[in-house]
Amino acid sequence: MRRLTILLLSLTLLLALPGCSAREQSIYEQDYDYLWYLLENEYPHYYVAERLRDRDLDEIKAQYAALLPEVETTQEFYELIIAPCLSDIGYVGHLGVLYYDEYQLRLYSAENHSQPYHTFLLDTLTAPAVREFYEQMKVTAGTGDVSGAETDTANLEFDYYPEQKAAYVKVRMMLSDEEPDGELLRAFFMDIEEQGYEHCIIDIRENPGGSDWYWKQNLVRPNITEDTYSTFYALFSGEYSHEYVDLLFDTYPLEELPVETMPELSEDDLSIATGCARFDIGVSAQEGAEPLFTGKFWLLVGPRVYSASEMFAVFAKYTGFATLVGERTGGDGIGMSPLVRALPNTGICLKYTAMLGLNPDGTANSEVGTTPDYECHPAITLLKCLDLIEEGA
Question: Which residues of 208-229 are buried (b: 16+ CB within 10 A; e: fewer)?
């Protein structure tokens, strides 16, 4: 099991002081060591990142450690070391710096929502060093909007193919609010049902994610008559991640992971895991409600499908809600909202998905995504779907 042997790390929340270069150097070395402690001990996508980047992460670690003597301020530490280091590892499992606008959104959620996984992060987001760092970042980032994403009617695009009795809707983003998209989609589903359309094509090829709530509430729930779900497993690493995951899912020792049903499970991924979670991805039906559309659903997918839109693709494929057409997706949709960790001295925050979601065969969803039922070249995805409809697939 890969583990980093670390020296004693000072967890005192120190602020960088002008004119104290020797002390600042020690602070930055401590925070850089702590960053890699997190990556090597609590980041379950460590080996996934190595495989996707085709590079030993130890090389990246050494590369930026060599630049530490050049660092004299927290801003330089952020710009020369932390941001490019995480960027070189790649956005695998949502790994990256927590930028100012996202910090504001996370802080707003932690202070104004009652969900345990929001409030769990409150101490991290309000630590003195963290507040100090993001106050400084605000100077260049602007104030941001902390109220949540706004809806936009341009988020949806509709089209109709009467020859194939197929209607089409493109969803560009899984927004966090229902209106006006909720009203538009309900009217769309009712309209195509009344007009006798037999197929509905939902296009999420350019959808990078957003809120799981959006697709559950607006795309699935209006069109099902019974609770619909599929069961998945995920790996996690470290006690802190365990506490976070345990707020939302049932967790188990690794011995209870059904590895015999997962022929493609990576031994490397398993070697750094300290536990697993079992959970359902699904949607509950509206009691007593009739489906707005009773025809067949098709889902157009591609490599930009990620996070919340990936979770929709996973749900659609493994529950049979829709038939997937297109290219393999971008992944990282089997899990929960990314965890936030703070470097103790500088207050710089990073985020990463605390769970390594597993596809049914054991492959890492953040690595291989979801394979569509019918694969095709991206230039002909919609045409392929219409052809399949004509062929009675």
Answer: bbbbbebbbbbbbbbbbeeebe
Contact 277, 182 (CB under 8 A): no
* DSSP secondary structure string for all residues of 177-205: S-TTHHHHHHHHHHHHHHTT--EEEEE-T
Q: Which two tokens stand for residue 183?
A: 């009203």
Tell whether the torsion through CA atoms of 182, 291, 324 and 306 is positive or negative: positive
Contact criterion met (CB below 8 Å) for 193 and 225: no
Strand partners, 306: 331
Average pLDDT over residues 114-139: 91
Is a pLDDT exceeding 50 seen at residue 151? no
Residue with tokens 């070249």: 377
- Compute how many other C-beta atoms are within 10 angstroms of the C-beta atom of residue 113: 11
Nearest to 342 by CA among 134, 73, 130, 131: 130
Plot region of 60 (φ>0 → left; ψ -120 to 50 → alpha; else → beta): alpha
Distance CA 290, CA 365 (A): 33
Q: Is the pLDDT of residue 376 over 90?
A: yes
Single out the residue of 168, 155, 251, 284 nearest to residue 211, CA to CA.
155
Considering just the CA atoms, what is the radius of gyration of the chain in Å? 23
Tokens at residue 92, please? 């695998």
Q: What are phi and psi of 221, to 5 degrees?
A: -55, -40
Residue 320 has pLDDT above 80, yes or no: yes
Contact in structure between 96 and 35 (CB atoms under 8 Å)? no
3-state per-residue secondary structure call for 128-158: HHHHHHHHHHHHHHCCCCCCCCCCCHHHEEE
Using CA atoms, how far residue 361 sits from 168, 206, 263, 270, in Å, is 32, 26, 6, 14
* Percent of all residues in the chain with a pLDDT value above 90, rounded to a whole number: 83
